[in-house]
Amino acid sequence: MLSRVAIKRCFSQTSINPYKVSVLGACGGIGQPLSLLLKLNPKVTALNLYDLKNAKGVATDLSHIPTNSTVKGFSADEPDGLHNSLKGSDLVIIPAGVPRKPGMTRDDLFNINAGIVYDLAKETAKAAPNACVLIISNPVNSTVPIVAEVFKSSGTYNPKKLFGVTTLDSIRSARFLSELTQTDPTKDKRINIIGGHSGVTIIPLLSQDNLASTKLSAQQQKDLIHRIQFGGDEVVKAKNGAGSATLSMAQAGSKFADAVLRGLAGEENVIEPSFIDSPLLKDEGIDFFAQSVKLGPNGIKEILPIGQLSNEELELLTACKESLKKNINKGKEFVQNKK
Ligand code: NAI
Questions:
Q1: How far from the centroid of its chain's Cα atoms is residue 243's Cα?
Q2: Distance CA 236, CA 230 (A)
Q3: Residue 68: which of 24, 23, 27, 12 has the closest Cα?
Q4: CA distances from 87 to 33, 46, 225, 294, 325 (A)
Q5: Angle, CA of 55, 162 and 228, to the nearest 5°
Q6: Over the stretch 202-222, which tens digit does the pLDDT of each residue have?
Q7: Cβ atoms within 10 Å of 322's Cβ, excluding its own
Q8: What does the alpha-carbon distance between residue 202 and residue 228 come to, in Å, rounded to a whole number?
Q9: Beta-carbon contacts of residue 146 (< 8 Å; ≥ 6 apart)
Q10: 107/96 Cα distance (integer angstroms)
Q11: Whether the Cβ atoms of residue 168 and residue 158 lie closer than 8 Å to each other
């Protein structure tokens, strides 16, 4: 039989760095598998699930999994449901909103998702002003600026704690590259991807990758860049009206959330790409950019340089900047028009 002291010790060992995580939009195609993966993450000790409805059912289901976290569900139809789901959270993940159907671009989602993200950000700024906020809802290039503007209005904006989740682009790149080179996808270093999170704003820097730049022909490189930029369309087409990437996105979101938590816990050298408030192109009027960041106890510890670009990649950057600027301004203007 374990003594009381031993039991306490066991418990405290598993609850080192306890983190409270809220998922807004937790009952959707991404929200459910993402919440499952978060329930399996030992760093998460409290998991709050919020959705328009059904969050209590999903929470109860997950709560039976024997890991070291409590799970609670909150719905829009209960008083202060959103506020209570957010209170005291260290990490808020937002996959709420509608996904794409065939023929739609991420930008086509703006009219619906901008309002959803705006409302959720407003409450997050009040109830969890110090949380790291991870935005999955598309179009990420516009929803991240929306959240930044909302937090600025409430006087609680911390650019080191706002992240657009672009991890899916990089995990896809690792998989696609491994298919072309017959290498282990779990061992490959992921390709450095910069820019934004839609179509031509996604710039995979193949020239910086030893495998891609030496083993692939020029045509293969061109095709790979296109596949990474438009990989989401493959899923949208195959699902044929039933939505966009959910399972691979949940894995990507969980991976990124884990990285942020590892940073908060003081782990060194945690590096992930993300769409962030970056000084890189501010003098060209582009306030947000996707690039690798080192994560730390206060969110972003360091924004890493993008490295050298080939001439072809500089051309991709020119196309990216044009779209990205429009996407970012659309988000900012949306919030200005609300005032
Ligand atoms: P879904 O429709 O399956 O789920 C969305 C969930 O959000 C639903 O449960 C819905 O009830 C909930 N919701 C809607 N309005 C809400 C509100 N005001 N408050 C709380 N919850 C609300 O959609 P899915 O497939 O989960 O996609 C969600 C979003 O993620 C979409 O915008 C999609 O484009 C985006 N996405 C982002 C990716 C990325 O790489 N960042 C990749 C794939 C999708």
A1: 18
A2: 10
A3: 12
A4: 23, 11, 41, 27, 34
A5: 85
A6: 999 999 999 999 999 999 999
A7: 12
A8: 8
A9: 114, 117, 118, 121, 331, 332, 334, 335
A10: 16
A11: no
Residue 220 Cα distances to 84, 179, 257, 269, angstroms? 50, 12, 32, 32
Let me know: does 15 contact 111? Beta carbons within 8 Å: no
CA dist., res. 121 & res. 129, Å (int)? 10
**65: DSSP letter:** S
Angle 328-332-334 (CA atoms, 0-180°, nearest 5)?
115
Nearest Cα neighbor of 94 from 168, 192, 22, 166 is 22
Whole-angstrom distance, CA of residue 126 vs CA of residue 87: 9
Query: Closest Cα to atom 13, ligand 1: which residue?
Result: 96
Instruction: Say if residue 134's pLDDT is above 70.
Output: yes
The Cα 269–Cα 296 span in angstroms is: 8
Instruction: Give me the residues paired with residue 22 across strands.
Output: 48, 92
- Closest residue by Cα to atom 34, ligand 1, is 99
- Active-site residue flag, 226: no
DSSP-derived 3-state class of residue 105: coil
Residue 16 pLDDT grade (very low, low, confident, very high; cuts 50, 70, 90): low
DSSP H/E element including 45: strand 44-51
With 0.90 as the threshold, say if the pTM is over it: yes
Q: Are strands 44-51 and 19-24 parallel, antiparallel or unpaired?
A: parallel
User: Using a 6 Å cutoff on CB, does residue 104 contact ligand 1?
Assistant: no
Give the chain's length: 339
Q: Which of 24, 30, 137 to mutate to test the pocket of ligand 1 (most atoms within 8 A of CB)?
A: 30
